[in-house]
Amino acid sequence: MLQKLHHIGMRGTDLLHRIESNPRTDEAEAELRELAQAIQGELRDEYERMHADQWTNSLTVFEISVYSPTICRMWKDTGINGLDVHAEIGAKWQEVFAAIIHLSR
Known about the structure:
Blueprint: H1 2-20, H2 26-51, H3 53-56, H4 61-77, H5 91-104
């Protein structure tokens, strides 16, 4: 579980570094959108998995007390759940992925 959080955080860090690189080509922006969509999908899948009926009864104490709340905060509180990956790549993206990185630590 900690590896999953670390992996998500590392992907967010990579994306944030790429956002800050100048100049950005159309190809680089396409890669950013693809990476953002992948992170968004990964978090959505983990969020749904943590809240699925078949899993909730078999969660460990760690998953209940740390992992599940962290995934929930990442999904709901960072803004990733509503991020439009086709919108302008700018301050909103930086804010969302900085929050994800912070929560993954």
